From TrEMBL:
<dbReference type="Pfam" id="PF08747">
    <property type="entry name" value="BrxB"/>
</dbReference>
<dbReference type="InterPro" id="IPR014858">
    <property type="entry name" value="BrxB"/>
</dbReference>
<protein>
    <submittedName>
        <fullName>DUF1788 domain-containing protein</fullName>
    </submittedName>
</protein>
Length: 194
């Protein structure tokens, strides 16, 4: 069984392979990949993502890693709309459940004008590899399967890697190794455990 460090080290070779960037799966599916990991390794994974971005984006490669931290996107959208401070006040008065519902409506998740998807779409470039991070931090506001089911609207056929603090068995996502998300079948595990 590979350690978290061995699995993280395998990412570089995987994403620098030209076949990976062509986004071709077994049947030419869109190239969505999930790097799942034990949530206790969150800080190790974050550090490695920063290392990969720094290394690849400085190499003068023919591609660029574009990272989208879902939590940071939520904060940025709420700040742009001047809703962030209002959310804090609303939570004090009406509770967390109310703010969760209000924030999800503000983000327009799963709608045609989903602000999170638009945020990413406005920032990607044709030669990007998209890294999605902050999945655990953004829960329960954004669910990972919601992003995976809708991200094609933003990135087209660009390769996507979601860093997932939990388990992905090729069919279902289990956030924090405890919370079962909806089934998701279109993503490939980026690096296995063996």
């Amino acid at each position: 069984m590979m350690t978290i460090h061995e699995r993280l080290d395998a990412i570089y070779q995987k994403i620098t392979d030209p076949a990976f960037r062509e986004s071709k799966g077994m049947s030419n599916e869109v190239g969505y990949h999930i790097f799942d990991y034990d949530p206790e390794h969150e800080m190790i994974v974050r550090d490695h993502i920063a290392y990969l971005k720094d290394r690849i984006n400085k190499e003068d490669a023919d591609f660029y890693i574009r990272e989208f931290d879902l939590y940071e996107i939520i904060i940025d959208i709420l700040e742009q709309k001047s809703y962030l401070e209002k959310n804090f006040e609303m939570e004090k008065k009406k509770g967390s459940s109310f703010v969760l519902n209000a924030t999800q409506k503000t983000l327009r998740l799963t709608l045609n004008n989903d602000l999170v998807i638009r945020y990413m779409g406005d920032r990607v470039q044709p030669n990007d590899i998209v890294f999605i991070t902050g999945v655990g931090k953004a829960f329960p506001f954004i669910r990972s399967h919601t992003i995976l089911n809708n991200i094609h609207k933003a990135v087209g056929r660009l390769p996507v890697v979601m860093f997932f603090p939990g388990q992905y068995d090729g069919q279902s996502l289990m956030l924090f190794n405890e919370l079962k998300d909806d089934n998701y079948y279109r993503a490939f595990p980026l690096v296995g455990y063996r």
